């Protein structure tokens, strides 16, 4: 599994995929990504140190992802990230966190000592589909509410059961309330959630302009950031 890469198109940055303790929620219907976790603190810390040793600070920006939220990374790894921020003159971090951690984001910003762009896996702003089908356990009411805590939502498109109207609304909310965002085109995996090819084709045609939009990253494959498998 590749765990380090450089993103050289939109928002240039280094990106690392680290190991963490199991996702605190871990029940999203569409997700089998949570299998990349561990309960062996020493093994995780050792692997993460090896991956983080590749960070050069070339762009002054580092994104850290794991199979859950940044708050589930081992303490030793968080300390190492903070040290690397100082040593490599990192001026901005990207982290991801679940809605349940919204009240802890500011403490993490203070701990790291640099601005953090916090991503959140929204998947959709349609609450019924998000909660009753995708089982996100993120019962916010609006995009505005999310924007009060998080900087960059991650949306998901192309799922059977999703509608064009849902996607139109999601993109509208992304553009109205956030300066950055990610759109993940769903890829079939080991879960029972299935990709809707017709919906994907419609989205890629209607929203082709997002491919050149500097504020939105469209991931057609889950490995488009160059990490994972």
UniProtKB/TrEMBL annotation:
Keywords: Iron, Iron-sulfur, Metal-binding, S-adenosyl-L-methionine. This is Radical SAM enzyme (TIGR01210 family). It holds the Pfam family Radical_SAM. GO terms for molecular function: catalytic activity; iron-sulfur cluster binding; metal ion binding. Residues 13-213 form the Elp3/MiaA/NifB-like radical SAM core domain. InterPro entries: Aldolase_TIM, Elp3/MiaA/NifB-like_rSAM, rSAM, rSAM_sf. SUPFAM superfamilies: Radical SAM enzymes.
């Amino acid at each position: 599994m590749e765990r380090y890469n450089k993103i050289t198109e939109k928002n240039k940055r280094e990106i690392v995929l680290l190991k963490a303790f199991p996702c605190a929620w871990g029940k999203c219907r569409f997700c089998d990504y949570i299998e990349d976790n561990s309960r062996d603190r020493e093994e995780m810390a050792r692997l993460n140190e090896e991956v983080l040793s590749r960070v050069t600070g070339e762009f002054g920006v580092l994104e850290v992802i794991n199979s859950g939220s940044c708050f589930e990374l081992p303490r030793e790894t968080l300390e190492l990230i903070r040290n690397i921020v100082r040593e490599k003159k990192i001026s901005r971090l990207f982290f991801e966190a679940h809605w349940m951690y919204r009240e802890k984001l500011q403490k993490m910003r203070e701990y790291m000592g640099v601005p953090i762009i916090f991503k959140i896996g929204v998947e959709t702003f349609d609450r019924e589909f998000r909660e009753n089908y995708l089982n996100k356990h993120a019962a916010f009411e609006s995009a505005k509410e999310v924007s009060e805590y998080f900087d960059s939502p991650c949306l998901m498109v192309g799922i059977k059961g999703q509608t064009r109207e849902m996607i139109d609304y999601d993109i509208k909310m992304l553009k109205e309330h956030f300066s950055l965002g990610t759109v993940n085109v769903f890829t079939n995996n080991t879960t029972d959630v299935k990709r809707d090819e017709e919906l994907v084709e419609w989205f890629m045609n209607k929203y082709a302009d997002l491919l050149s939009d500097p504020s939105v990253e469209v991931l057609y494959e889950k490995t488009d950031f160059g990490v994972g498998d």
